[in-house]
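Sequence, please.
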């Protein structure tokens, strides 16, 4: 699951492009550069973050970041946790959650583990639509203080403002980020490689609204606010394929771009001017052919999750979307279900039956047998599991800290 604020991304991205054009020279790759001037990464910036440092955190819980974008937040204590889940049938996996270091205005909205398992990129969503990105070392990874710790806080990198994480490259040292443009960033040096023009006055500039990188790291698909097509480029920014919109267009533009595990297919929704880019689910091949609608007419899908073998997709389907723009950070007020579709015949199966409650953020277990998700079925938001055949519904977490005024929009899964 990913990308809950694509419409905001387009709106704020266009503004960011204009501000960059009017107010800044091109940013250098110097870690901590502010307006082109080198700044020590351990210097406390003037901007005060709404996230306060946890007074009870240990000294090493606050790691000075490489500050990449403006405005710069003050250091904060972020303490995600890994919980091992042992099922009765002998299967096990890990859950990554964030119980400490966030508040109702900045819930964690996506977790993405690096290919080598050493890092997790966490998107922290803002109530006004922006994002912060934190890259954190995982327990047992190369930057961990101890493999026995279940909390990890070795924060390596911050992006803040209107910045969105869009994927890891296979080397686990670079990430794809989206501002109003697309860039590949080295998490060790802060070096930045622009893939699309950064400035609104540059010929060819477009305001990128969504993007995703293929599992092999060779191809990137993106959309923009100016046109309603899919654009495929290589990691140097060279054009490869354009997938034009059907006529008539089925929505504003493609959103929720999600590659299949082996890079053969791109799943996406056609935004119906709703929250999270919700709309009918579509599928296109990586070559740009065979674009087709997968879901029935009139449905509103989002939060796409491919099964590990690429044979199925789990999605969140909204039942009632009338008030979602006012409730976009409060999923406990939604009415939504999880549905499963099979690639071989586009058949659909309703997995959950929430009876007016909400299910969101589906994630597959590593063995592909079950889906883990967030729900308020028991009254407060918790993590649940259901098998892919609809059996075995069970609550996995009983954590009071997850039941804040605004619950998390996502979590992570580890083998």
């Amino acid at each position: 699951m990913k990308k809950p604020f694509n419409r905001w991304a387009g709106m704020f991205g266009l503004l960011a492009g204009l501000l960059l054009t009017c107010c800044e020279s091109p940013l250098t790759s110097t870690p901590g550069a502010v307006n082109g001037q080198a700044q020590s990464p351990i210097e406390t910036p003037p901007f005060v973050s709404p996230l306060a440092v946890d007074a009870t955190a240990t000294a090493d819980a606050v790691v000075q970041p490489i500050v990449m974008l403006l405005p710069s937040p003050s250091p904060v204590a972020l303490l995600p946790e890994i919980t091992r889940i042992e099922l009765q049938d002998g299967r096990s996996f890990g859950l990554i959650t964030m119980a400490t270091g966030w508040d109702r205005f900045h819930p964690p909205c996506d977790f993405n583990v690096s290919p080598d398992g050493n890092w997790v990129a966490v998107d922290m969503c803002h109530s006004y639509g922006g994002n912060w990105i934190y890259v954190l070392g995982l327990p047992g990874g190369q930057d961990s203080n101890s493999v026995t710790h279940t909390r990890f806080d070795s924060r390596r990198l911050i992006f803040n403002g209107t910045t969105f994480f869009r994927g890891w490259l296979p080397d686990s040292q670079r990430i794809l980020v989206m501002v109003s443009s697309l860039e590949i960033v080295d998490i060790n040096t802060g070096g930045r490689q622009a893939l699309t023009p950064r400035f609104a006055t540059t010929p060819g500039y477009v305001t990128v609204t969504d993007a995703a990188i293929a599992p092999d790291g060779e191809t990137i698909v993106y959309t923009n606010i100016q046109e309603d097509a899919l654009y495929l480029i290589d990691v140097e920014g060279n054009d490869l394929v354009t997938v034009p919109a059907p006529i008539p267009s089925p929505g504003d533009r493609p959103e929720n771009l999600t590659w299949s595990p082996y890079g053969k297919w791109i799943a996406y929704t056609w935004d119906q001017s709703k929250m999270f880019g919700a709309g009918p689910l579509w599928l296109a091949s990586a070559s740009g052919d065979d674009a087709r609608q997968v879901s029935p007419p009139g449905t509103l899908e989002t939060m796409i999750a491919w099964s590990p073998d690429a044979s199925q997709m789990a999605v969140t389907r909204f039942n009632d979307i009338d008030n979602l723009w006012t409730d976009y950070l409060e999923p406990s007020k939604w009415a939504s279900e999880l549905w499963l579709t099979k690639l071989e015949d586009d058949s659909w199966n309703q997995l959950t039956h929430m009876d007016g409650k909400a299910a969101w953020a589906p994630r597959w277990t590593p063995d592909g047998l079950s889906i883990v998700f967030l729900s308020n079925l028991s009254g407060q938001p918790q993590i649940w599991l259901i098998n892919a055949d609809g059996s075995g519904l069970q609550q996995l977490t009983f954590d009071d800290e997850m039941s804040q005024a605004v619950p998390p929009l996502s979590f992570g899964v580890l083998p």
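The longest strand covers residues 92-100.
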